[in-house]
Design brief:
Blueprint: H1 8-29, H2 38-43, H3 50-61, H4 64-76, H5 84-106, H6 113-118, H7 121-154, H8 158-207, H9 210-219, H10 238-254, H11 257-263, H12 269-300, H13 306-309, H14 318-326, H15 333-373, H16 383-406, H17 408-434, H18 440-459, H19 479-492, H20 504-507, H21 511-534, H22 559-585
Helix pairs in contact: 1-8, 1-15, 3-8, 3-11, 3-12, 3-15, 4-12, 4-15, 5-10, 5-12, 7-8, 7-15, 7-16, 7-17, 8-12, 8-15, 8-16, 9-12, 10-17, 10-21, 11-15, 15-16, 16-17, 17-18, 17-21, 18-21
Length: 586
C-alpha cells in the first residue's frame, strides 16, 4: 500500500485553521461589550441564537477521542454502537422539559447554585468539586490522546501538537469568552464533519462506491444490530446502549455545567429547548457518519490489518494512518483531516475551560471573597479574575497532557473517572427536581456511597479485554512474515477471552457503570433522607418559601411536578375554605 506524507500543503491548511480560531477570539475581545462583565464573558450576555449553540453542544460532546474511538469501534467490533442514538432521542425531551426549565428560571452561571438552593452549601460544594476533578483530568486525556495517535503516523511530534493546540485554545477561550468559544465550535464542527467525510469519500473512490464498502462489512461480520442479550457482561446490547446511553446523555446534556452554560446563553427558554432538539440530528449525523467511516477504513485494510502487520501498535491509530496512506495524492486533504481531529480537541478543551472558570468563580472565589471581606464580589471586578482562572486552566490542561504521556495509567483512570462521576451527579439533580422528601444529609450519603461503588467497579481489576472481530493479513506483502508477527501478537494476548475466574462485577459492561452509580445514589439518597427525617436528624427547610414550611418553592422542581403539586395545594386550600365556610354557617 502506498504511504503518503504530511507535506507543505497539509501544514498550510492546519496552520490556517489554527489562525482562524485565534482570530475569532481576538474579534470577540474587541467587539460588543468587549468582555467587560462576567455576564458577557461567561454567559455571552444571553444573546446567542439557536444555530451556534446547537452545534456547540455537539462539538463539546464529540472530542477527538470520540471521533477516532467511534470509528475504531465499528472497525473492531461492528455497527452495534449506533443503537445508542435511540438513547439520545429518548433523553432529549427529558433534558429539554424536565431539567432545563429549572435552571432557566434561576438563570444561574453555575449549575451547582441550584443544589445550594435545593439542599444546602455542602451539596453544592461536593458536586462542584466532583465536576472540577472530572473535567480537569479529562482535559489532559482529550489533548494527549489525539496528539499521541497523530504522532505515530503523521510525524507531528506529540509535544508540539499538545503545546500548539493547548495554547491556541487557551488564547481564544481566555480572550473571547463564551461567545468566541461558541463561534469557533461552529467552525470546528464543520471541520470535524469534513474530516469524517474525507475518510468516507476517499475509501468510496477506491472501492468504486458505497455499496462495495457495505458488502465487505456484511461479508466480514461488521454489520450487527441484533444483540438483545440480557447479560450485563455483554459489552454492547440494546439494553446497555439505550439505558446506559440515556444516563450518560442526561448527565451531559441535562445537568452538566459545560452544556447547561451553553443552553443558558440563548435569549429565552424556548430557544434553549430548540437548540437541544437541533443538536439531536447534528449529533446523530456525526455519529452515523463516524461509524460508517470505520467500515470505510475496514474496507481498505480488509486483507492487511495494520496492527497485525506491525505498522502501528494500537488500532486507535488506524484512522490517522488511513488518512496518511490514502490522502497524500490530494494536496491539503490530509491537512484537512488532521485539522478536523485538532478541532475536535479544541472544542472539547475550550468548553472545559469556560465551564471550569464559571464554576471556580461562582462556587469558590465568590464565597471565599465574601467570607474574607464580608461583602459580595461585584460583577465589574469579577471579569479579570475569571480570565486569569481560564488561562490557568488552559495551561494546566497542557501540563496534564504531558503528565498523562509519562504515566500510562492516568489515561484509563481519567476516562474511568469521567464515566463513573456522571451517574451520581445526575442522581443528585434528579432527587432535587423530582422529590420533596430528599434532604442534604441523605443526598450526600447516597452520593458518597455511589461514588465509592462506582470507583470500585471502575478501577477494580483485573478486567477482561473485549474480544474483537476477526482481521486478515492474507493480502499483505511478505505475508509469511506478517503471519508470524500476527501469531506472536495473538500469543501475547492469549488472555483476551473472558475467563470464569474474573470477578463478575469487573466483567460488567462499561455502559452500566453510570447506571449503577445513578441507581445507588437515588435509592440510598432518598431512603436515608426519609430515615434521617423520621429520627429528626435532617430537615428540608430549603424547599419552602415561609418559615412555617407550608408554601413550597415550586421553582425548584420540574415543571410538570410543580404544576401537579400546585393544583393539589389549590384543591386542598379550596376544600379547607369550603369546610371553614360550612362551620361558620352552622
Amino acid at each position: 500500500m502506498p504511504v503518503g506524507t504530511f507535506d507543505a500543503w497539509d501544514t498550510a491548511v492546519l496552520i490556517s485553521i489554527l489562525v482562524v480560531s485565534a482570530l475569532i477570539g481576538i474579534y470577540y475581545r474587541y467587539t460588543g461589550g468587549k468582555q467587560r462583565t462576567t455576564q458577557e464573558y461567561l454567559m455571552a450576555d444571553q444573546s446567542m441564537t439557536t444555530f451556534p449553540v446547537s452545534f456547540s453542544l455537539m462539538a463539546s460532546f464529540m472530542s477527538a477521542i470520540s471521533l477516532m474511538g467511534v470509528s475504531n469501534e465499528s472497525y473492531e467490533f461492528g455497527t452495534m454502537f449506533c443503537v445508542i442514538n435511540i438513547a439520545y432521542v429518548l433523553s432529549t425531551p427529558i433534558a429539554a422539559y424536565f431539567f432545563l426549565p429549572v435552571f432557566y428560571r434561576m438563570r444561574t452561571t453555575s449549575v451547582y447554585e441550584y443544589l445550594e438552593r435545593r439542599f444546602g452549601q455542602a451539596t453544592r460544594l461536593s458536586a462542584s468539586l466532583a465536576f472540577t476533578v472530572q473535567m480537569v483530568l479529562y482535559m489532559g486525556i482529550a489533548l494527549y490522546a489525539p496528539a499521541l495517535a497523530l504522532e505515530a503516523v503523521t510525524g507531528i511530534h506529540r509535544s508540539m501538537a499538545i503545546v500548539v493546540i493547548g495554547l491556541v485554545c487557551t488564547f481564544y477561550s481566555t480572550l473571547g469568552g463564551l461567545k468566541a468559544v461558541l463561534i469557533t465550535d461552529v467552525f470546528q464542527s464543520f471541520l470535524m464533519f469534513a474530516a469524517i467525510y474525507a475518510v468516507i469519500a476517499v475509501s468510496a473512490i477506491k472501492a468504486g462506491g458505497f455499496a462495495a464498502i457495505w458488502e465487505v462489512a456484511v461479508e466480514r461480520g461488521r454489520v450487527n444490530f441484533l444483540e438483545f442479550s440480557l447479560d450485563p457482561t455483554v459489552r454492547h446490547t440494546w439494553w446497555s446502549l439505550i439505558i446506559g446511553g440515556m444516563v450518560t446523555y442526561l448527565s451531559l446534556y441535562g445537568v452538566n455545567q459545560t452544556q447547561v452554560q451553553r443552553l443558558l446563553s440563548v435569549r429565552n427558554l424556548k430557544s434553549a429547548q430548540s437548540a437541544l432538539w437541533w443538536n439531536l440530528p447534528i449529533l446523530g449525523m456525526l455519529s452515523f457518519s463516524t461509524i460508517f467511516s470505520g467500515l470505510a477504513i475496514f474496507y481498505y485494510y480488509r486483507d492487511c490489518d495494520p496492527v497485525l502487520k506491525g505498522r502501528i501498535e494500537k488500532r486507535d491509530q488506524v484512522m490517522p494512518l488511513f488518512a496518511l496512506d490514502t490522502m497524500g495524492q490530494y494536496p491539503g486533504l490530509c491537512g484537512l483531516f488532521v485539522s478536523g481531529i485538532f478541532s475536535a480537541s479544541l472544542s472539547t478543551i475550550s468548553s472545559a475551560v469556560t465551564s471550569l472558570s464559571a464554576v471556580t468563580l461562582e462556587d469558590y472565589l465568590k464565597p471565599l471573597y465574601k467570607a474574607i471581606f464580608k461583602r459580595t464580589l461585584i460583577d465589574s471586578k469579577s471579569t479579570l479574575p475569571t480570565k486569569i482562572v481560564a488561562c490557568i486552566f488552559g495551561l494546566l490542561c497542557i501540563g496534564l497532557a504531558f503528565v498523562a504521556g509519562s504515566m500510562g495509567g492516568v489515561l484509563q483512570a481519567s476516562l474511568t473517572i469521567f464515566g463513573v462521576v456522571g451517574g451520581p451527579l445526575l442522581a443528585i439533580f434528579t432527587l432535587g427536581v423530582c422529590t420533596t422528601r430528599s434532604n442534604q444529609r441523605g443526598v450526600l450519603l447516597g452520593f458518597l456511597v455511589s461514588l465509592i461503588v462506582s470507583f470500585w467497579m471502575g478501577f477494580g481489576g483485573p478486567k477482561p479485554r473485549p474480544v474483537t472481530l476477526e482481521f486478515s493479513t492474507a493480502g499483505c506483502e511478505n505475508a509469511t512474515s506478517v503471519m508470524a508477527h500476527a501469531i506472536q501478537l495473538s500469543a501475547k494476548s492469549s488472555g483476551v477471552v473472558i475467563e470464569p475466574d474474573y470477578f463478575w462485577l469487573y466483567r460488567i459492561s462499561y455502559l452500566w457503570l453510570s447506571v449503577i452509580g445513578f441507581l445507588i445514589a437515588v435509592v440510598v439518597g432518598y431512603g436515608s433522607s426519609i430515615v434521617l427525617a423520621h429520627f429528626g436528624k435532617a430537615e428540608n427547610a430549603e424547599i419552602y418559601l415561609d418559615k412555617s414550611q407550608n408554601q413550597l418553592d415550586y421553582d425548584l422542581f420540574a415543571p410538570m411536578l410543580s404544576r401537579r403539586w400546585r393544583r393539589q395545594e389549590e384543591q386542598n386550600q379550596t376544600a379547607q375554605d369550603e369546610t371553614l365556610t360550612k362551620l361558620t354557617e352552622q
